[in-house]
Amino acid sequence: MLSRVVKEHQDKQALFREQQEKRRKAALAAVHKCTGTMVDSLNSGVEKAYENQRKLDREAKALQAHSARYVKQTTQWLGLVEGFHKSLKSLGDLEQWAKTIEADMQTVVATLDFAYRGSGEVHVLHEQSPQASAATR
Fold it and tell me: What is the pTM of this model?
């Protein structure tokens, strides 16, 4: 009878250990599945952040290249505008020079006319502009 009680106790203990082992394996499997899901979720976020960072880097490089090209083009445009401005300025100077020469030539013609005709008056053929008369003084 004692041996039977001991045997039953040992059987119950073996059954209990078996159940405990099954529960431990099930718990380990659940923990493994849970950690796998959490790691996948975290990796997904990290992967997305890394991909976004790579896109930002590519766009920043492209923006830098475009900016450099626009700076170069703007510098060229400024050079052209400055050259055009200088040309316009010299054209204005040339126009003023031509008016001065014309006024001087009118004075010479009037003087020669006076000398040739012998009259007492000097006639200027065309009226001088204020700028031209200032330049001849």
Answer: 0.43
Band (pLDDT 50/70/90 cuts) for residue 76 is very high
Low-confidence winner among 22-31, 84-93, 104-113 (lowest mean pLDDT):
84-93
- Rounded Cα distance between 24 and 28, Å, is 6
Token representation of residue 81: 């505008």
- The tokens 């052209």 sit on which residue? 80
CA pair distance 124, 115, nearest whole angstrom = 14
Q: Helix/strand/coil (H, E, C) string of the chain?
A: CHHHHHHHHHHHHHHHHHHHHHHHHHHHHHHHHHHHHHHHHHHHHHHHHHHHHHHHHHHHHHHHHHHHHHHHHHHHHHHHHHHHHHHHHHHHHHHHHHHHHHHHHHHHHHHHHHHHHCCCCCCCCCCCCHHHHHHHC
Report the candidate in 131, 58, 67 with the shortest Cα–Cα distance to residue 100. 131
Give the tens place of pLDDT for each residue, 27-36: 999 999 999 8
